[in-house]
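Person: Please work through this fold.
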Amino acid sequence: MTKFLIQPNEFGICADTHGTPMTTSYYIANYFHKRHKNVIRDIQELQCSKEFSGLNFEPTSYTDRQGKERPCYNVTKDGFLILTMGYRGEKAMKIKEQYIAQFNAMQEFIRQFNKTRIEYGNLTDALQDIYGIDAPVYFYSNEINMINKLATGKSTKQLRAEHNLETGASIRPYLSPSELTLLEHLQRYDISLLQIFKDYKDRKQRLTEFAEQFKAQTAAKQNSLLSGGTEKADKQSKK
């Protein structure tokens, strides 16, 4: 069974522990309305090189509704494109377009995820420089929880409970792209604040103001894009 960095979404798009976006032959069969055994056959009969097959089609397994373990393949974006090249028809084309969009979105999410993870490490290093290695654990947890709540509106404990995560498990794979982006910026800003404001309340006030401004700017950009799209549609309808 494959271990995931990011769990599968409704299209089965996920990321393995190396950060590689992928889906499975099982999901592909479901979305293209094919028998899974036929999709497995299609993969096995592809006349691509062993190197390409090894990189893009990984034998694995899943548990069916009866609790039995069944064979399937993890399939990368490149593997998906090669496999579905022969799946023709208007419906098949729409499904391919949806999958490609999902793969691209996952790749962007992983990029943002990695940036946020790096900033988290930088922040914990900065906290250690300020408080020292022997500081109480809550010095660190309070800071991290504050930032998580500003980015998501929920405490770390609430987020873990929502996703049935163990204590200490990362919440980052379960955040939305916008939450991840805000979290990254908050962590980076907090690192600079730690050099100036030693009091937790001072940092919290400034981080709260930053989060509110960031959310307002993001909302304004989204509204601008939506209004721009509406204006374009109106112009086209008048032609």
